[in-house]
C-alpha cells in the first residue's frame, strides 16, 4: 500500500512527484524495502524515487526542480 501512493499521485497530477519510501509500515514492510521496490517497479512517468527514509535527498531534488523552473521564467 505505501509503495503504491507515489504512482497514484503521479497519475493524478501533471507535476513531478518525489516518492520517499519509509522504513515504518504495516504488515510485512521489510524495513521499507517493500515500498521501495513497489515504487521503482511502478515506472510511473514523472516520479522520482529516493532511498528509504531519505527525506534530505527528496528535499534536495525538489530544490533542483525549483531552480530549473526559476531559470525558465
Largest sheet: 2 strands, parallel
What percent of the residues sit in helical stretches (DSSP H or I)? 40-55%
Number of discrete helical segments = 3
Q: Assign an overall shape.
A: globular
CA-based gyration radius: 13 Å
Q: How many domains comprise the coordinates?
A: 1
Helix and strand pattern: HEHEH
The strands making up the biggest β-sheet line up spatially as 1-2
List low-confidence stretches: none
Which structural class should the secondary elements be placed in? mainly alpha
Percentage of residues in DSSP E strands:
5-15%
Whole-number mean pLDDT: 93
Q: How many distinct beta strands?
A: 2
How many angstroms does the end-to-end distance come to?
38 Å
Topology of this structure?
Elements: H1 4-12, E1 17-19, H2 33-42, E2 47-49, H3 55-72
Parallel strand pairs: 1-2
Helix pairs in contact: 1-2
Any overview of this molecule?
The protein is mainly α. The chain has one domain. It has helices at residues 4-12, 33-42, 55-72; strands spanning 17-19, 47-49. Strand 1 (17-19), helix 2 and strand 2 form a beta-alpha-beta unit. The protein starts with a helix and ends with a helix.
Amino acid at each position: 500500500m505505501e509503495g503504491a501512493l507515489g504512482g497514484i499521485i503521479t497519475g493524478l497530477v501533471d507535476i513531478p512527484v518525489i516518492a520517499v519510501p519509509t522504513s515504518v509500515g504495516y504488515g510485512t514492510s521489510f524495513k521499507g524495502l517493500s515500498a521501495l521496490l513497489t515504487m521503482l517497479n511502478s515506472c510511473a512517468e514523472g516520479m522520482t524515487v529516493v532511498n528509504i527514509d531519505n527525506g534530505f535527498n527528496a528535499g534536495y531534488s525538489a530544490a533542483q526542480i525549483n531552480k530549473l523552473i526559476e531559470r525558465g521564467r
